[in-house]
Every structure is written in structure tokens, then in C-alpha cells.
Write a structure and sequence with these properties.
Blueprint: E1 5-13, H1 17-28, E2 44-50, E3 56-62, H2 67-79, E4 82-90, H3 93-102, E5 107-113, E6 116-121, H4 123-126, E7 129-133, E8 156-166, H5 169-180, E9 189-192, E10 195-201, E11 208-214, E12 224-226, E13 229-233
Parallel strand pairs: 1-3, 4-7, 8-10, 11-13
Antiparallel strand pairs: 1-4, 2-3, 5-6, 6-7, 8-11, 9-10, 12-13
Helix pairs in contact: 3-5
């Protein structure tokens, strides 16, 4: 069994990274984000915004026809955008990778970033693009010290829950349980450091529902859709 696993980033895909970033910042009063320079080499533009609770909202868009950019372009053509990937900080990402490979799961990525192992599992096998980030200290994250600081005026301060649509929740739950090294999981629900991921039957729109925690300034937020996902607030 794994020592721990934390949901760190929820990734939304869009065809317009600048427009989507401006929309999210305006709606939630978030500060400037961080663009991972390594993603451009695989055809992706990104914009990662920090929340005070330690989680991050990330936007990705195609930037070229390099492999991951081309794959995202095809996905956007089919779906129009929305919930795309989950990044989970894991105590032993390499062991999780080995368990996945033994189960026949294909890897979308297997590399080191800033000295840490990063593994992505193919969405056709895992139900969605699941990334595990092997940063050994649960108090540390990639963007610490990069200037991606939470805005003191933000209307939200953490991600509490993601209802993510997958084709077969029961099969995906069994697979994730094995890969992550979890004990028995009930109701297709994974507790990832107090942030919950529910694997639910895939619907046409929206495929994901994200529950966000209001900051003390966020009392005026009302539930609704944004960038192809349904947003709820508590």
C-alpha cells in the first residue's frame, strides 16, 4: 500500500489558453500563473494558477503539432474542451508505474522533471489522463519558489472534489486502486489528501464536476458551467 497520495492539480483543456486564463482570473480573482517551459517541447501551452489550500488549477492548450499537442487537438475536436487530466503527488510514482505496466496500462509519459519522476497513464486505459508526480516530500511541489503564489483577493482557496466521467467507473476504480497502491475503495471514490475524486459514468456534457471551496471573499459565487465543466462551491 502507498504511504500517501495528494491531488495537486486539476487540468482543464481549451483551444484558447489566453482567453481561458483571462476568464478564470476574472471570475475567481486569481493571480498570475506559471507556464511550464518543458511542455512547449511536446506541443502544449499551459497556465497554472495556485490556490491558498495547496492545490492548483491548470489550463492546457495545443501549441504545435508535436505529439501531445496533436493528441490534445484531436481531443478538443471531439469534446470541445473541459476536464482533461488530474495530477496526483504520489509517495512512490515509479513503483506505481511498474504496477501499471504489469497490468498492461500504456504510458503517455515517463520522464523526470526538475529531478522528479513523472508518469502519465494513457486515458484509453486509465479512463482519463492520470499523472503521478514523485515528489517525496508532501509539503513540497514543483512550483514552490516559482512565483506562482495564491492571490490574497481570490474568491476560491482549494479544490475539494472532482467528479470525473469515465466510460466504466467500476473497472477504472479497480485499476486505479492497484496502480495507486490503495486498500479497498468504496463507491468509486479516492481520498487523495482530503481532496476527493469520484469516478462517475461519462456524460456528454459536462464530463466533470469540480467542487471548490469559497474563500472568505467568495460568498457571491453561484454554481454554473465554465470552460466545459460544472463548478460547485461550498
Amino acid at each position: 500500500m502507498t504511504d500517501w497520495a495528494l491531488l495537486r492539480q486539476v487540468v482543464l483543456a481549451t483551444g484558447d489558453i489566453e482567453g481561458a486564463g483571462a476568464l478564470v482570473r476574472e471570475k475567481f480573482r486569481l493571480g498570475k500563473g506559471f507556464a511550464d517551459p518543458e511542455l512547449d517541447t511536446v506541443g502544449l501551452a499551459d497556465d497554472t494558477m495556485a490556490l491558498a489550500g495547496g492545490s492548483y488549477l491548470e489550463l492546457v492548450a495545443p501549441s504545435s503539432d508535436a505529439p501531445m499537442g496533436a493528441a490534445l487537438s484531436r481531443w478538443l475536436a471531439k469534446t470541445g474542451g473541459g476536464g482533461y487530466a488530474l495530477s496526483v503527488q504520489h509517495s512512490d510514482a515509479e513503483a506505481a508505474r511498474d504496477r501499471a505496466v504489469a497490468l498492461g496500462v500504456r504510458l503517455a509519459a515517463d520522464q523526470r522533471v526538475m529531478g522528479h519522476p513523472i508518469v502519465q497513464f494513457h486515458p484509453a486505459d486509465a479512463g482519463l489522463l492520470l499523472e503521478l508526480d514523485g515528489i517525496a516530500d508532501p509539503e513540497k511541489w514543483f512550483w514552490d519558489g516559482m512565483g506562482v503564489d495564491p492571490s490574497p483577493d481570490a474568491l476560491i482557496d482549494d479544490i475539494l472534489r472532482v467528479d470525473a466521467g469515465v466510460a466504466d467507473p467500476a473497472s477504472a476504480t479497480a485499476l486505479w486502486t492497484e496502480i495507486l497502491g490503495f486498500g479497498p475503495v468504496e463507491k468509486h471514490t479516492f481520498d487523495l489528501g482530503g481532496r476527493l475524486v469520484y469516478l462517475v459514468p461519462k456524460a456528454d456534457r459536462p464530463q466533470w464536476t469540480i467542487t471548490l471551496r469559497r474563500s472568505p471573499l467568495g460568498g457571491g459565487l453561484t454554481d454554473g458551467d465554465l470552460l466545459g465543466v460544472e463548478l460547485r462551491y461550498v
